[in-house]
């Protein structure tokens, strides 16, 4: 029977600057999914790559005194070195400067033109070079790009346009008939409410103001713009419009496009419309994950707040970096990175829970049974509970991966490890040894060794080094490292020799490591700025600082009732709310438009910060901030439990 195929992609990374820890998240989670699917018996094809054309690359290469191709070659070398360091098991790496890709893109452009889906016109708009996006003046935020906050400039040029508006109804039909096409659900709502319902506009797909791009074969003063060039990589990498399209026939359509939430629009509106125009089947799912935030801000090299994955991996190991990325970004929401949170995860989860369990178990088998895994005997209630949890593990992890919830998958694995640590405390093997109860001691130590094997097998897609070290320590044969070997508890052969291994994870001195990391970061920033580093370490970078009760009480929290709500023109995420705070009203601008329709909010009771300094947002004075909670299902307004009059204090 032929294996079921599974095609998974990351977005191709834009080659205009250094790569940081935030870039690693998408690639690491896709790698974990790809590894899991391979172990589950799928024929997997995992694609990643680099997007190497565009005005930004051309300008950066000029500033660096080099050619665009030389510039992107250097960045290609860096990112492939990073993926090798992080054990990324991609099946193909595509560069948009690859000759086969450029030739296929030219054919795609011509097909669309000959079908009447492209036409030539003139475009005028405000252009953000870093985001490669055009904006109308009403969409700007204080005259700047609404996505990145950078300066924009007026651009006017002849362009070819893709008839995106033609596919509006078909896209809406796609979303209706395939509710899982866009995940999480909040991303689907954003696409419908902010783009489809207001009406799609035709899309500029060629440029004449720069030359670093794929030339249009029938009009060579034009180069093909990013939407058709970059997005087409998902099919050109498989040989579409190439000499050998066998991979395309085998793997397309994709099972999963994994992307950051900021580019969901490109992958769920523009990309499916292009595929519809080409009469090609659509991918099964586009998942828009959250960002990895650094101290509450989006991670970005340009803002000087990006952790260095090379530094972290060299100091603490690749598994520690992979674990943090996979464990700390909640399903569909944003995750937080600080050096302190990262180091705490190493100590609490990896060293204390996992590493300590492995070390204690192997040490006790060596001490009490001369390093030979004993045969187990009769079971009691403690044993049955541990065994049941182990035997349920793979099914639980599989369900989490099917839902693309890597943190929950790891939570289940570490729940088993935690249970094994508690099992040691409950059974007290040292007491059994002291009392001469070797039969019971043998059962306990066998159960521990087998439980660790179950966890290590399940951890292989996520951590690429520690499981192999565990297998070596427990003497696990190759046939017991597969998912199939977890069908029933008790497969680990008694009589196998264990051996002492180095700690799979070491505890770290958090205070010492923070100081050294901050010194390293200060040195790197100084080098970037061409300055001499200070002898003093940089200020501590961590999560939000602890505050005292006096500081907390400075915030005046009150209840209010929303009496009017309307969208802010040109700002797809903003709503203008009018609050009744008990005899007086005030206006608050809130970024909740992707989660709530204005009409749903009228009459709703909320909690808001009443003494926040006024701020002008999109030309509207906002006086206060309503409180919201964000979880797996999206964002929800914090409301009082029960009826309470507007203006009541919250404490």
| Low-confidence segments | 299-305, 531-543
Biggest sheet layout: 7 strands, parallel
CATH structural architecture of the largest domain: 3-Layer(aba) Sandwich
State the fourth-level CATH superfamily of the largest domain.
HUPs
Radius of gyration: 28 Å
Q: What's the overall average pLDDT, rounded?
A: 88
Global structural class: alpha/beta
Fraction of helical residues: 40-55%
Annotation, overall tally of beta strands: 26
Counting copies of identical and different chains, the oligomeric state is single chain
SSE inventory with pairings:
Layout: E1 5-9, E2 13-14, H1 21-39, E3 43-51, H2 55-63, H3 68-85, E4 92-95, H4 99-114, E5 118-128, E6 133-135, E7 153-162, H5 168-177, E8 182-183, H6 185-196, E9 203-204, E10 206-207, E11 214-215, E12 223-224, H7 226-231, H8 233-236, H9 246-251, E13 256-260, H10 264-277, E14 286-289, E15 292-294, E16 297-298, H11 309-316, H12 318-328, E17 335-337, H13 339-369, H14 381-402, H15 406-427, H16 429-434, H17 438-459, H18 466-474, H19 510-529, H20 549-552, E18 557-567, E19 575-580, E20 585-590, H21 598-601, E21 605-609, E22 615-617, E23 620-622, E24 625-626, E25 628-631, E26 634-637
Parallel strand pairs: 1-3, 1-13, 2-3, 3-4, 8-14, 13-14, 15-17
Antiparallel strand pairs: 5-6, 5-7, 7-9, 10-12, 11-12, 15-16, 18-19, 18-21, 19-20, 21-24, 22-23, 25-26
Helix pairs in contact: 2-3, 11-12, 13-15, 13-17, 13-19, 14-15, 14-17, 15-17, 17-18
């Amino acid at each position: 029977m032929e294996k079921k195929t599974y095609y998974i992609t990351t977005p191709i990374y834009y080659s205009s600057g250094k790569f940081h820890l935030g870039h690693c998240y998408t690639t690491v989670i896709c790698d974990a999914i790809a590894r899991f699917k391979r172990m589950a018996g799928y024929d997997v094809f995992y694609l990643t790559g680099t997007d190497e054309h565009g005005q930004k690359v051309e300008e950066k290469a000029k500033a660096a005194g080099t050619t665009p191709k030389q510039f992107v070659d250097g960045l290609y070398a860096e990112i492939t070195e990073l993926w090798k360091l992080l054990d990324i098991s991609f099946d193909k790496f595509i560069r948009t400067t690859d000759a086969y890709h450029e030739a296929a893109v030219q054919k795609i452009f011509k097909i669309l033109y000959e079908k009447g889906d492209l036409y030539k016109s003139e475009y005028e708009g405000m252009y953000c070079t870093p985001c490669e996006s055009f904006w109308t003046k009403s969409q700007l935020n204080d005259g700047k790009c609404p996505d990145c906050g950078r300066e924009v400039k007026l651009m006017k040029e002849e362009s070819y346009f893709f008839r995106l508006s033609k596919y509006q109804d078909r896209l809406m039909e796609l979303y209706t008939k395939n509710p899982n096409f866009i995940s999480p659900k909040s991303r689907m709502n954003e696409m419908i409410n902010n783009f489809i319902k207001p009406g799609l506009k035709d899309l500029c797909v060629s440029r004449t103001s720069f030359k670093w791009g794929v030339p249009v074969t029938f009009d060579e003063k034009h180069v093909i713009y990013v939407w058709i060039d970059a997005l087409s990589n998902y099919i050109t990498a498989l040989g579409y419009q190439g000499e050998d399209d066998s991979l395309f026939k085998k793997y397309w359509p994709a099972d999963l496009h994994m992307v950051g939430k900021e580019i969901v629009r490109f992958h769920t509106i523009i990309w499916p419309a292009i595929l519809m125009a080409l009469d090609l089947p659509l991918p099964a799912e586009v998942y828009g994950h959250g960002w990895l935030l650094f101290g509450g801000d989006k991670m970005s090299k340009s803002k000087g707040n990006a952790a260095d994955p090379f530094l972290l991996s060299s100091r603490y190991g690749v598994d520690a970096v992979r674990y943090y990325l996979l464990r700390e970004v909640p399903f569909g929401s944003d995750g937080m990175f600080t050096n302190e949170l990262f180091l705490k995860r190493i100590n609490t989860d990896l060293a204390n829970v996992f590493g300590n369990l492995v070390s204690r178990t192997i040490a006790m088998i060596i001490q009490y049974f001369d390093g030979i895994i004993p045969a187990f005997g009769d079971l009691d209630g403690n044993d049955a509970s541990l065994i049941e949890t182990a035997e349920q593990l793979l099914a639980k992890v599989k369900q989490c991966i099917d839902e693309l919830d890597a943190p929950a998958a790891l939570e289940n694995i570490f729940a088993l490890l935690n249970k094994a640590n508690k099992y040691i405390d409950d059974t007290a093997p040292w007491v059994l040894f002291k009392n001469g109860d070797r039969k019971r001691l043998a059962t306990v130590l066998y159960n521990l060794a087998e439980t660790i094997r179950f966890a290590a097998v399940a951890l292989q897609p996520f951590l690429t080094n520690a499981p192999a070290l565990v297998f070596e320590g427990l003497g696990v044969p190759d046939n017991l490292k597969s998912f199939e070997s977890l069908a029933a508890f008790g497969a680990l052969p008694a009589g196998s020799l264990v051996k002492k291994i180095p700690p799979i994870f070491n505890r770290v001195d958090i205070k010492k490591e923070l100081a050294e990391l901050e010194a390293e970061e200060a040195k790197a920033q100084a080098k970037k700025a061409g300055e001499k580093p200070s002898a003093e370490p940089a200020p501590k970078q961590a999560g939000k600082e602890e505050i005292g009760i006096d500081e907390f009480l400075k915030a005046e929290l009150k209840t209010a009732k929303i009496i009017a709500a309307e969208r802010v023109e040109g700002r797809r995420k903003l709503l203008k709310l009018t609050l009744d705070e008990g005899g007086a009203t005030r206006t608050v601008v809130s970024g909740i438009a992707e989660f709530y329709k204005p009409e749903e909010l009228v009459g709703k009771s909320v909690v808001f910060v009443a003494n926040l300094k006024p701020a002008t947002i999109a030309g509207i004075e906002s006086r206060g901030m309503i409180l919201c909670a964000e979880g797996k299902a999206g964002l929800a307004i914090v409301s009082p439990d029960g009826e309470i009059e507007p203006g009541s204090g919250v404490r």
